[in-house]
Structure formats: C-alpha cells, structure tokens
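Retro notes (design track)

What went well: tokenization of the new backbones is finally stable.
What didn't: we kept losing track of which sequence belonged to which structure.
Fix going forward: every design gets posted as structure first, then sequence, in one message. First example under the new rule, 205 residues:
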C-alpha cells in the first residue's frame, strides 16, 4: 500500500472485517474542528488525523495490541482508508506504525510517543533564528534540523524467530540524523520532536 487516496467502501452486507498478514485495523481520531488557537477550521482544511485506536490485529503482529493508541505518518504511507457500515477506518501494516501513545487524547503530545521496532524518538535541537551576520531568517531560509537528543528507543528489528534485535542508540544519546527523515511533531512542552529509523541516524556525538 502506498499513500492514501479515496476510501474503499466495503459492501453493506458485510458488518465486520479482520486484518491479515501483519496488518492492523485502526479507528482514526476525529479530525480537529479548530486550530490550537481556537479558530474554526472548514472541513476541507482540517488536517487528517495521524492517531487512532487499534480495533483488531492480524496474524504475525507483535508491536501493538487491541485497544492501543497508535500514531502514524501524516502522509498516510502504508495506510488504506476504508468505510464499513458508514464508519471510517484505516487498514495499515504494523510496520508503518511510528509509535504508541498512552491514549488517543495524547496525539498532540509527541513527547509521550513510544517508538516501535527500530525507530527512535528524538528531541530536536532548535535551529538558529539568525544568519551569521545577525539577520533574522524567514522560515523558508532556516536550516532543516538534523540533530537532537534521543528521548526513547524502540525494541529493535524483529528477526525471523520473533526476537527483537536491540538497536545501537539509547535514551540520552546525542545524535545527528538524515535531515529529511521523519516528520517534525510538537510536544505539550512546546518542543519539537521527530521519529526516525535507526538507519537514518548518521552518528552519535
């Protein structure tokens, strides 16, 4: 499955579905009706939810369980929108889950993400607001962040025996990562975070 397109409508004679092949069925969080500042959003401007509750897991899954809140890419990579009995759901590969959260209500607090598999949660170093000559930089001219501190690390890659091979970065490590990896997320503390895979970590320092 690639990026998200139009939802696939399940014929009305079916009342339930069960994911297979390492996939999970997710009920997305309701789309935000207002901005963080309280302004009303028109329906076509509301961002697609990136968090939801796992309703069912297929065979071969190991990182998430029924009832867990999960977070996934805003680009919908690996997600398939489906409609069943008038309700909207997502079918996605467990491997495409970026992390889990204590509750769906924590979707706006990236600091609480528990990364899955070989992913790490990094607190991003702030980028310079001015040039070397002291000029204030517009957003378009600021360097994309590529360094930070590891807040949490996933259990690692899963091998053929179902065992997790630990990754080589840990909480507290200062790392540099590929600057186009992951998506910038915001925590309740106002700080920026990013979830990247271990392969996108370039070095520790």
């Amino acid at each position: 499955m690639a990026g998200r397109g139009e939802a696939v409508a399940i014929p009305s004679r079916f009342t339930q579905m069960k994911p297979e092949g390492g996939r999970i069925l997710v009920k997305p969080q309701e789309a935000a009706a207002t901005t963080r500042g309280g302004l009303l959003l028109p329906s076509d401007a509301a961002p697609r939810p990136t968090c939801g509750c796992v309703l069912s897991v297929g065979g071969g899954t190991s990182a998430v369980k029924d009832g867990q809140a999960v977070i996934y890419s805003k680009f919908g990579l690996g997600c398939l929108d489906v409609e069943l009995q008038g309700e909207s759901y997502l079918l996605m590969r467990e491997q495409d889950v970026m992390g889990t959260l204590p509750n769906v209500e924590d979707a706006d607090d990236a600091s609480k993400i528990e990364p899955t598999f070989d992913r790490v949660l990094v607190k991003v170093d702030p980028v310079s607001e001015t040039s070397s000559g002291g000029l204030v930089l517009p957003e378009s001219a600021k360097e994309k962040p590529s360094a930070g501190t590891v807040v949490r690390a996933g259990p690692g890659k899963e091998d053929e025996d179902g065992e997790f091979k630990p990754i080589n970065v840990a909480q507290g490590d200062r790392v540099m990562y590929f600057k186009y990896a992951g998506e910038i997320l915001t925590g309740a503390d106002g700080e920026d975070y990013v979830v990247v895979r271990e392969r996108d970590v370039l070095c520790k320092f």
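Added context from the reviewer: The mean pLDDT is 85.
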